[in-house]
């Protein structure tokens, strides 16, 4: 059973890489311009090891308590860990010490705490600002008009390196509707670059069900969980 499981993970990864290559080429984007982030929440460190043997180096986790034992168990593999979940203030220290990227920053307070806790022996922590385009009060993320002020603030923090924007859109089945949401994030990134004279390159958008539309709209990191590892336990 274990062998069969690992074979499936590797096959899934090859299938997703093919879909990414097809979507890159269909939208006249350079091969390799979209990075695959494997979302490993709910999966074990041996499943992550299987993904590693298929060539993956970047893994995403949503909960610090769940991530730490995996990071510990796999520390010899020198993986890049991305924090993609909601951030509580009391978790900023652990996140700043053990991750290379945080995709879900949406407040000055959290940004300041992450910067303060980033060890000076490590490179700056890569940051994406999470944006909320759907105005649902339950969702976290910045309103479009809050993006520039927080970006300007982060530029002053020595422990952080602002890289771009992240989106978790409202689920939509229609690919054109998905595409239009993603296109709005791309436009917000371009506005931000112009407004603050930056050259942010990163758009963290696209999951298992809307990856193609996200790539067509300019995604540079797709976050894929279940299509690689199967259903979460
Ligand atoms: C869980 C999660 C994903 C992966 O979702 P799948 O449907 O398993 O591909 C991507 N991004 C975020 C922020 C997540 O929390």
Q: Features of this protein?
A:
233 residues; alpha/beta; 9 helices; 43% helix; 17% strand
What is the topology?
Blueprint: H1 2-26, E1 35-39, H2 45-53, E2 58-61, H3 64-73, E3 80-83, H4 92-98, E4 101-105, H5 108-117, E5 125-131, H6 147-154, E6 160-167, H7 175-196, E7 202-204, H8 211-216, E8 221-224, H9 226-229
Parallel strand pairs: 1-2, 1-8, 2-3, 3-4, 4-5, 5-6, 6-7
The structure holds pyridoxal-5'-phosphate.
Summary of the model, kept short:
The chain is α/β, with parallel strands linked by helices and 233 residues long.
Characterization of this structure:
The chain has helices at residues 2-26, 45-53, 64-73, 92-98, 108-117, 147-154, 175-196, 211-216, 226-229, and strands at residues 35-39, 58-61, 80-83, 101-105, 125-131, 160-167, 202-204, 221-224. The protein is α/β, with parallel strands linked by helices and 233 residues long. It has an eight-stranded parallel β-sheet with strand order 7-6-5-4-3-2-1-8. Helix 6 (147-154) links the parallel strand 5 and strand 6 (160-167). Helix 1 (2-26) packs across helix 2 (45-53) and helix 4 packs across helix 5 (108-117). The chain is globular, with a radius of gyration of 17 Å. The chain starts with a helix and ends with a helix. Residues 39, 41, 62, 84-85, 168, 207-208, 223-227 line the site of pyridoxal-5'-phosphate (PLP).
Strand content: 15-25%
Q: Count every helix, treating DSSP H or I runs of 4 or more residues as helices.
A: 9
Largest sheet: 8 strands, parallel
Kindly provide the radius of gyration, computed on alpha-carbon positions and rounded to a whole number of angstroms.
17 Å
Distance between the termini: 16 Å
- Bound molecule types: pyridoxal-5'-phosphate
């Amino acid at each position: 059973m274990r062998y069969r499981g690992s074979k499936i993970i590797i096959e899934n990864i090859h299938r997703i890489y093919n879909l990414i290559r097809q979507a890159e080429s269909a939208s006249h984007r350079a091969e390799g311009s979209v990075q695959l982030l494997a979302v490993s929440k709910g999966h074990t460190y041996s499943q992550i090891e299987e993904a590693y043997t298929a060539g993956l180096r970047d893994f995403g986790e949503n909960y610090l308590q769940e991530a730490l034992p995996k990071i510990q168990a796999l520390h010899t593999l020198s993986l890049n860990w991305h924090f993609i979940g909601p951030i509580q203030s009391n978790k900023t220290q652990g996140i700043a010490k053990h991750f290379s990227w945080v995709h879900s920053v949406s407040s000055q307070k959290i940004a300041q705490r992450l910067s303060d806790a980033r060890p000076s022996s490590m490179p700056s922590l890569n940051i994406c600002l999470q944006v909320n385009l759907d105005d649902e009060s339950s969702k976290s993320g910045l309103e479009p008009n809050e993006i520039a002020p927080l970006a300007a603030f982060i530029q002053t923090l020595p422990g952080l390196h602002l890289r771009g924007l992240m989106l978790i859109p409202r689920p939509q089945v229609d690919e054109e509707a998905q595409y239009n949401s993603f296109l709005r994030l791309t436009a917000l990134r371009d506005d931000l670059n112009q407004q603050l004279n930056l050259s942010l390159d990163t758009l963290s958008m696209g999951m298992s069900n809307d990856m193609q539309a996200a790539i067509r709209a300019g995604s540079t990191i797709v976050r894929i969980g279940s299509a690689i590892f199967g259903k979460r336990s």
